[in-house]
Structures are given as C-alpha cells and as structure tokens.
Amino acid sequence: MLVLASASPRRRFLLTEWGYDFAVVDPAADESWPPGAGPEAGAGILAERKAAAGRRLWQKQGGASGDVILGADTVVELGGHIYGKPADEADAERMLAELSGRTHKVVTGFAIIYADGGATRVVKDSVTSMVRFHKLTAAQIRAYVAGGEPLDKAGAYACQGDGRKFVQRIDGSEENVIGLPMETLCSSLFACGISPAAGESSVREPSVMEPAAARAKVSAGSPAPAPAPARPPKAHKADRAGANGLRVTDMPAELKPRERAVRYGVGALSNGELLALLLRVGTQGENALRLAEHILTETGGLRALAKITLPELTKTRGVGQAKALLLLAAFELGRRTAEDTDDPDRVVVTKPEDAVTLLNDMRSLDREHFRVIFLNTKNKVLGSESISVGSLNSSIVHPRECFKGALRYGANAVILAHNHPSGDPTPSRQDLALTQRLVDSGKILGIEVLDHIIVGEKNFISLKESGDMK
Questions:
Q1: Are residues 372 and 334 in the same domain?
Q2: 333 and 378 together in one domain
Q3: Which residues contact 278 (CB under 8 A, 6 or more apart)?
C-alpha cells in the first residue's frame, strides 16, 4: 500500500488524477533548511525527513511495516536564496515582489521508504522546473495576498490557483511546480512495487484512510499495488532490465517516455526522459530510461552534458560512438536555435542607446535596481533579469548572481545596468570597483561584459564610452 506523508491537497489531487490508491498521514517533521544545502539536495533531505516521520506515525497507528511511504517537499530558489512558506502576509508580499518579472527555480524533492526483503530502503530524487513571472504591480500582489492563497505555499504562490496568472512561462513540468513531479515519481514508485489502479484514472476525492480502513479496502477487492518482481524478466540484449527489473517496454503506457510525450507534449518530460527518447534503447543491465539517468549523473547534469566532447562522452559506461554523436548533435541543434540571427523579434545591440531602450522603466524607480542583459554571439538580446534591488541609494551585487542567468541563457556576453534614484548617472567609486570585479569574473567564465550603463532621470552614462571600463 502507498501512504502519502503529507496533508497537501495538491499532492493528493495529483496522485489521485494519476490513478493511485493511497492513504494519508500528516506527520510533524523537522522542516528547518539543511545548512549549506543547495535547493535540490535540501528538498531531498526535507522529503526524506517527512517520509521517515510519516512511516513512524503510520506504524504507530497500526500500519504495516511493509507499506510504501512517500514524502515530498517543494522549494523556490532565486539568486541563491531559498523561498519556503511565508511567515505572514508581509513576508508573502516581499517574496512576490522579488519574484516579479524574473525567472526562478522550483524544486520538488521526493523520498520513498519501502521494505525490500528484510531491509528498509530509501529512494530519493528531485526535479527542477524554471518559472518566469510577469512583472507584477504592488496592487496585484496586495490583492492576491489578501485572498489568503499564498500563505502556505513555497514562494508565496499557487500555480494551480489564482497564482497561475502571474506565470509567464514554465520550462519543465508544471505538475512539479504544483507539488509532485509525477512523470519521474511514477517510475520510482513502479520500481518499488506501486502502480496506478487498473482502468481509466479519474479525478475524484482522494482516499484518506486510517491503517485499518486502508487494509480493509485492499482486502475487499480494491487493486493492490503490484509487487516488485523477484528477479529481472528476460530482455532483449539491447534493452535489458535495470536495477528495478524493468524494460521500458514492460512499463505501463502512462510511464513510458514516448507515450507520455504524445499525451502531454515533450515539455512535460524530465531531462532523463528526453534523453531516453533520443537513446531509444538501453544497454546490458540498464533500460533506456535508467541509462539516460546514469549519463546525467555521471557527466554532472544537463548543462555539463551540453559542453562535453565526443571522447569524454564515450568514456561513460553504456555510451558508444553512435549514441554519443546523437546526443551531441541534439545539443548542437539547440545551440544553433538559440543563436539564430534570423529571429526578427530580438533586439540587436550595436551601441549603448540600443540597450537603453530596454531600460527606460528604470528612470522612475525610487530604489536602485541592478539588471543584466544577456546577448548571443551576434549581440542579439536573449533576455534580461533584475538581480538586485537595493535601498534608496545602494545595491548589493555578487558575481555569482550576475552570471548565473548568463549561464542559464547560454549567453556569450552581457551588458550591466543600474539606475541612480537621485537622477544623476555619474558613476561612484563603488560603481567603478564593482564593474571591474564583474569584468574580471566574466573573463574567468568566458562571458564578456560589453558595457555597464548607469541610468539617470533624463540621461545615462555608458562606462564603456566614458573609458571607465578596462
């Protein structure tokens, strides 16, 4: 039996929509952020804490030790800061103001605790989606917060509720943003012996049962979770079963990457599933999906894989020259698309005035904002982000935050910009020192800082043109 260690109605809805029968417990778990943990690792640790607390509570209530316990935690990350649930309305308004007009990361970690023979095992994973917000007004934020929806949501918004109108774009799984990355979770649950109920899934009120009622429901004829196979089934040499004893062809249709792509579109697939579609078949001991996940782990993730060379990639277990060339060709097509100079909607920056047209809104701001414009190899604008909002007369900028967006966009160069609320764009000594620091950091990363523009009320200064950039 599957037990969800969460009272979240969003997670209950998603499990139900995908056809799972499950019970629910609401354990008290330590939700303090693990010191020094990144969003992916931290979300996984919190999810495991919740699963462990849920298992203890379930067994205390009389649940079987062999039942499968699922814990999950969702966090929002922007500029190295983790956004959990807001403390109050003022905190919620602050979070939304900081997310406004920017792209942030939503990470959901999940942990599954299950019995394997006489041993207790834990399966952990996390999925990341990138969410771009529209520019929000203070009135929009106040009205939304006053409605009460964001007060128990990570990042202070609900993608499945009224908060969805704030979202301009989601790169990745929307279900992950809601609270459970179902496309990845289903595969992990299946490996632990848990499958959706037979027949067509439908949206219905989730089963929230005490242990005795849950056992009675199963014994009364409800479909029980499929047991994990005792040994791997026979498989074709090219697509042998992996550690979970499954070939892709043996998986339920709703879990197969190809069928999921047809049903939901390729945008809903995880990174591993997209790679599995390209690979088509696995290798001895691993199906295509497990091979894809292994490649991502061994090479350091999608961004590292996009920069890898043919000799390096063929050193990865299970990747021959044919598979390596296929993956490299896919990444090269993506790069060429990103640098397509025929896109008529992209602004080309040939002089400071071209960039200033994108910065006019900064003239009337009453606080100092620091913005970065990202450019491709042809100086076409890929996008821009505000990375810091300061006080009345100062802004704190770290090179890490400045170039994180550039790496995400695959930018070849950047233009820095900030405003002087006083209206006078004359650079300060701090402005010049910061500029040199960012120029030096860009050289290390191979990203050129083309200019730093300071915007005043009626005019601007280009540090490149003024000779203040080395």
A1: no
A2: no
A3: 326, 327, 330
Best-predicted range by mean pLDDT among 68-77, 115-124, 125-134?
68-77
Residue at 308: amino acid letter: I
Residue 270 falls within a domain, yes or no? yes
Distance, CA of 115 to chain centre: 29
3-state secondary structure of 206: coil
Specify whether 248 is located in the same domain as 296: yes
Token pair in block for residue 116: 């394997």
Tokens of 346: 């992209």
SS3 assignment, position 259: helix
User: Is 385 inside any structural domain?
Assistant: yes
Q: How confident is the model at residue 362 (pLDDT cuts 50, 70, 90)?
A: confident
Domain total of the chain: 3
Q: Does 98 score more than 90 pLDDT?
A: yes
Structure tokens at 386: 């505000």
- Length reported for the chain: 470
Question: Do 13 and 162 have their domain in common?
Answer: yes
User: What is the extent of the structural domain holding 171?
Assistant: 2-191
Rounded Cα distance, 55 and 5, in Å: 8
3-state SS assignment for residue 82: strand
- Asked whether residue 356 is domain-assigned, the answer is yes
Q: How far apart are CA 355 and CA 439, in angstroms?
A: 18
3-state helix, strand, coil in the chain (%, to 5): 40, 20, 40
> Is 143 found in the same domain as 59?
yes
242 or 92, which is more confident? 92
* Catalytic positions: 73
Last residue of a domain, one of 191, 209, 243: 191
Contact indicator for 331, 324 with CB cutoff of 8 Å: no
Q: Return the structure tokens found at 401.
A: 């935050």
Q: Which residues pair with 125 in a beta bridge?
A: 110
Structure-token pair, residue 427:
């650079």
Sign, CA dihedral 37-102-296-266, equals positive
Indicate whether 197 belongs to any domain.
no
The answer to whether the beta carbons of residues 43 and 119 sit under 8 Å apart is no
